[in-house]
């Protein structure tokens, strides 16, 4: 790894917790830390997921674990089943920030404003009350597609993916109980993991990022309810993107800072903004087992406006069709089945209530879980259903050994033992990977083409 340039390290001098020698040494070491966060609705724990590796918990996360080395996730069918999300450990602290600032006994409305590829969204989803509604938004279209795929793989039923500019959210008025703004930043916190980024770093870019962060926050804040919480984070060490943004927020908006309780054993550094003495939290890779990260929490004050109900109509599936779909599903009686063209979409009750307003104001890429396409006598089940928590537990399924699971995920031809004709779930280690249809003389592999494994090779 190239040495850190003085033009960068000079800007860190005097920052709380910055230790020049230890910081340079940890970057020179090139050590790679690998961590994953489990999908609690699909797994019962880490046991058995990585039998070849040592696993240790990430101290500030209920479902986060360090792995003793980096396996090939591409060749792990459990990754494709959405059993876990590969996420940098420091950023998992968002879970602790949410636990300390939100009432998790209540269903809430949350917005993850800068969401792709979806690490924070999947974390927020797993942390909030299960009847909450999460809007995961990404402004860049191609990244919104990636976000959608990752949300589908995660499989939760209570996420809406949108593809909007932050300013579009002001149209819905004060609406969200929680807004997470994991802002685009100059990225110095990831230098150890991504050394090529060192050459791209410049102070001018830090200033550009800082201005963009202000614009994003100013655009999104009208959508936060009075009493609601804003969590701001970056993976930059720059004052201009961290402490100075805290001061700017407090000077320009009706916000108060929310300090968090830290366990001293975590070695997270508290930092105070120069003007308002607002508390934020810095993560240095020489002090925590994770990359560089910054996070701060705020509450909006003022009178909460009454919630406006939007009277939009959803096109619901007729009752006789519902009866046809029901055997495929394991959802509450309150879940709704919406018909969108000829596709059946499963909506949570909270989502069904809010969707008309969201549809009117935002570009929705995905809402809830697509169950499948209705044909005259059948449902053609969708990949989203196979990977979702809405699927019935007793559908026909075939357990595959590793080699066959990888063949399936490559969309190669399958030779299955003599099994019943019709739709069958392809499973690995008890987890659904997708659908296949068994015909009299062959098996059709329904794994989505765009998701198939392209990489050559086999697991080590
Ligand atoms: N939260 C994500 C996660 O945990 O997986 C990472 C988000 S990344 C730090 C910042 C995101 O902001 C990127 O996906 C980027 O495309 C998006 N972005 C870039 N410019 C933006 C803008 N002007 N407004 C909102 N988001 C923007």
Automatic annotation (TrEMBL):
Source taxon at top rank: Bacteria
SAM-dependent MTase RsmB/NOP-type domain location: 19-301
A single MF term (Gene Ontology): RNA binding
Keyword Kinase attached: no
InterPro entries: Methyltr_RsmF_N (IPR031341), MeTrfase_RsmB-F_NOP2_cat (IPR049560), MeTrfase_RsmB-F_NOP2_dom (IPR001678), Nol1_Nop2_Fmu_2 (IPR027391), RCMT (IPR023267), SAM-dependent_MTases_sf (IPR029063)
GO biological process: one example: RNA methylation
PROSITE patterns per record: SAM_MT_RSMB_NOP
Residues involved in S-adenosyl-L-methionine binding: 114-120, 138, 165, 182
Mitochondrion listed as a keyword: no
Signal peptide bounds: none
Keywords assigned: Cytoplasm, Methyltransferase, RNA-binding, S-adenosyl-L-methionine, Transferase
Residues of the active site: 235
Family, similarity comment: Belongs to the class I-like SAM-binding methyltransferase superfamily. RsmB/NOP family.
Protein name: RNA methyltransferase
Top-level taxonomy: Bacteria, Pseudomonadati, Bacteroidota, Chitinophagia, Chitinophagales
């Amino acid at each position: 790894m190239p040495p850190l340039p003085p033009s960068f390290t000079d800007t860190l001098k005097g920052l709380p917790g910055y230790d020049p020698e230890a910081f340079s040494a940890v970057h020179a070491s090139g050590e790679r830390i690998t961590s994953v966060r489990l999908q609690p609705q699909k797994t019962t724990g880490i046991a058995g997921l990585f039998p070849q590796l040592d696993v240790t918990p990430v101290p500030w996360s209920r479902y986060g674990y360090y792995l003793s080395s980096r396996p090939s996730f591409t060749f792990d069918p459990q990754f494709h089943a959405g059993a876990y999300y590969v996420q940098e450990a420091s950023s998992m602290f968002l879970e602790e920030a949410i636990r300390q600032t939100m009432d998790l006994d209540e269903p809430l409305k949350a917005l993850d404003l800068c969401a792709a590829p979806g690490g924070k969204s999947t974390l927020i989803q797993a942390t909030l009350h299960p009847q909450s509604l999460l809007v995961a938004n990404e402004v860049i279209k191609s990244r919104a597609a990636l976000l959608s795929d990752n949300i589908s793989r995660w499989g939760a039923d209570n996420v809406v993916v949108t593809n909007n500019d932050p300013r579009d959210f002001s149209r819905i008025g004060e609406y969200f109980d929680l807004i997470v703004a994991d802002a685009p930043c100059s990225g110095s916190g990831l230098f150890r993991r991504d050394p090529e980024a060192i050459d791209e770093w410049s102070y001018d870019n830090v200033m550009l990022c800082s201005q963009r962060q202000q614009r994003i926050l100013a655009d999104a804040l009208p959508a936060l309810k009075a009493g609601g919480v804003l969590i701001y984070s970056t993976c930059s060490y720059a004052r201009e993107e961290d402490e100075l943004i805290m001061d700017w927020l407090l000077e320009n908006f009706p916000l108060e800072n929310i300090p968090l309780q830290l366990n001293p054993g975590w070695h997270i550094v508290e930092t105070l903004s120069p003007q308002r003495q607002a508390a934020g939290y810095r993560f240095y890779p020489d002090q925590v087992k994770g990359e560089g990260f910054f996070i701060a929490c705020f509450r909006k004050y003022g009178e909460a406006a009454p919630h406006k109900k939007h009277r939009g109509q959803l096109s619901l599936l007729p009752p006789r069709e519902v009866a046809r779909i029901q055997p495929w599903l394991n959802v509450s009686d309150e879940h709704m089945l919406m018909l969108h063209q000829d596709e059946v979409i499963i909506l949570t009750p909270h989502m069904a209530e809010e969707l008309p307003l969201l549809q009117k104001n935002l570009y929705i890429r995905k809402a809830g879980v697509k169950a499948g396409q209705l044909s005259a006598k059948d449902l053609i089940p969708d990949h989203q259903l196979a990977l979702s928590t809405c699927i019935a537990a007793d559908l026909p399924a075939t357990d595959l050994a590793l080699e066959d699971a990888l063949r399936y995920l490559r969309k190669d031809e399958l030779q299955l033992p003599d099994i019943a004709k019709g739709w069958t779930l392809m499973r690995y280690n008890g987890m659904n990977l997708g659908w296949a249809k068994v015909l009299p003389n062959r098996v059709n592999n329904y794994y989505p083409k765009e998701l198939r494994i392209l990489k050559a090779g086999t697991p080590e």
